[in-house]
């Protein structure tokens, strides 16, 4: 059963119940679920709704942050350039939002100068090892979103899956970690470029990331990159 990767924080919408087999991940050293922490990520964007952390994202140009459509609710803002979602970097309010399938482009109220996340125009090879990033929950249940940005490696199983809104998605399975609630909107990266946007997961091994290549022309038309 797939669920949206919503942050399991008070006041936010709850996800659906995932398979009980994932309960075994409670015992894993807590990063993403598995994986490790990140020391520097100038392109990272913590996504806030009404002032509270809700999702992960990436800044792709001076004025645009890429995240998941299902993260958009209420008054949106972002913290850019810090691996700590609660401090550091710079903060901006979101002036407007454009969406397509489970991708969202948030136009910032003023520009941010940093190192932006490169975007891929092609799909990662099936069988390739990719990296995922996010501030999501560090265990299957009973814990909060991570304060420090995490990363894990996954193996691509398909480039023809479906995201939460019917768009094309990249399917992967865990190598040393997997995405969970709060990782929504975060990037999947192959060869240094973002290939996906976190959309749905089962909380145990599988995750589905909205395809950047599939939506590349739309991203360019909105954000100019």
Automatic annotation (TrEMBL):
Similarity comment: Belongs to the peptidase S1 family.
Entry annotated with the keyword GTP-binding: no
Signal sequence segment: 1-24
Peptidase S1 domain mapped to chain residues: 32-224
Pfam families membership: Trypsin
GO terms (BP aspect): proteolysis
Coiled-coil ranges per UniProt: none
Transmembrane segments: none
InterPro entries, alphabetized: Peptidase_S1, Peptidase_S1_PA, Peptidase_S1_PA_chymotrypsin, Peptidase_S1A, Trypsin_dom
A GO term for molecular function: serine-type endopeptidase activity
Alphabetic keyword roster: Disulfide bond, Hydrolase, Protease, Signal
Name used for this protein in its record: Trypsin-like serine protease
Keyword Protease included in the entry's annotation: yes
Superkingdom classification of source: Bacteria
Species in which this protein is naturally found: Actinoplanes aureus
């Amino acid at each position: 059963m797939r669920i949206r990767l919503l942050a399991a924080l008070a006041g936010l919408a709850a996800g659906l119940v995932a398979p009980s087999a994932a309960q075994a991940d409670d015992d894993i050293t807590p990063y993403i679920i598995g994986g490790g922490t990140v020391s520097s990520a100038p392109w990272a964007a913590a996504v806030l709704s009404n002032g509270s952390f809700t999702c992960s994202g990436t800044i792709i140009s001076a004025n645009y942050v890429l995240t998941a459509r299902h993260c958009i609710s209420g008054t949106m803002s972002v913290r850019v350039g810090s691996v700590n979602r609660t401090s550091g970097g710079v903060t901006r309010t979101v002036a407007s939002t454009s969406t397509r399938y489970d991708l969202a482009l948030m136009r910032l109220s003023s520009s941010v100068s940093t190192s932006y996340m490169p975007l891929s125009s092609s799909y990662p090879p099936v069988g390739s090892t990719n990296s995922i990033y996010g501030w999501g929950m560090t265990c299957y249940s009973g814990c909060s979103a991570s304060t420090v940005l995490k990363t894990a490696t996954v193996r691509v199983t398909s480039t023809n899956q479906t995201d939460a809104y019917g768009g094309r998605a990249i399917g992967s399975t865990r190598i040393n970690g997997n995405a969970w609630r709060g990782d929504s909107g975060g990037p999947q990266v192959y060869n240094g470029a973002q290939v996906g946007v976190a959309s749905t997961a089962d909380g145990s091994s599988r995750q589905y990331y909205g395809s950047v290549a599939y939506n590349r022309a739309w991203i360019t038309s909105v954000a100019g990159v």
